Amino acid sequence: MTTGHVFMAASLDGFVARLDHALDWLMKQKTGGEDHGYDTFMENIDGLVMGSGSFKTVIGFDDWPYKKPVIVMSGSMSEKDIPADLMDSVKLTRLGPKDIMSSLNREGWKRAYVDGGKIVQSFIREGLVEDITISHIPILIGSGIRLFGEIDQDIDLQLQSSRTFGSGLVQSHYTLLKNS
Amino acid sequence: MTTGHVFMAASLDGFVARLDHALDWLMKQKTGGEDHGYDTFMENIDGLVMGSGSFKTVIGFDDWPYKKPVIVMSGSMSEKDIPADLMDSVKLTRLGPKDIMSSLNREGWKRAYVDGGKIVQSFIREGLVEDITISHIPILIGSGIRLFGEIDQDIDLQLQSSRTFGSGLVQSHYTLLKNS
What we know:
homodimer, alpha/beta, two-stranded antiparallel ribbon
């Protein structure tokens, strides 16, 4: 089965974006010159799975940031919501997490980048995430879209490594232990 | 003014206790032999401020764990709720965070340990917390009492240091920057 991998920044109080998806609190961080390992992470995935909220945020950027295929989970979007120049690299799906991973597995994906707060939550709940790299940003924003959500039972993690950056970012890499 | 200091463990998803105040997820961690700096922290405070929820959890322990005075914030508890052997070390107050700190300042306290999720939130909101040491435990528990709560505006932090332990605990020390 294709494995899910999470690489996310979150405020110290656990939010990946404000409620309106804004990332101003993240963008203002003085991280210039720091290599947080994002490029290396991206080289080692076959593509991305994200929700419509994240997708809409990303198409608002000046440039499309991804070189790998992107699967957008949405029950309401249609092909016409995808800009013409992205038709080759973006696909919509109405499948749930498990069916998406089965489908990607058949297409030869080994590792999928699972992105966006709500999507990450649903993939974690269904046991489809193998590891999480979380970069804690030194700010409290009080409310927003949570990185982690409700779960049926505790999920134990194993810390693989942790490192800090001059900007105050603390990046920790965890694998998820299967609760059998 | 007396300064507030926070030294808390939280699940990676940001909870300091389950909704019923249970700490089983924390107690099960294999941290034997690790010195997380708690004793050193306790030596450098003049006493503790906590809520009635934390107090009720702590008096359920086999032994009273504190050698320093404890102020319990509660609108409903009365002297009869305090065990007789703790009458000398525990005081109840109905004051709010700012008035408590003014009062403690008059009594000569320089540094107060601010403990318990809801209490920490209210002291942070009122700008009474100088620094936070947060130990992230490698587990997701999904729901519970949050370490951080709603705030009126963002609070920037400055990372002072971060270290990891063999148990998978990541402990980071932040000072809170005053938003002027």
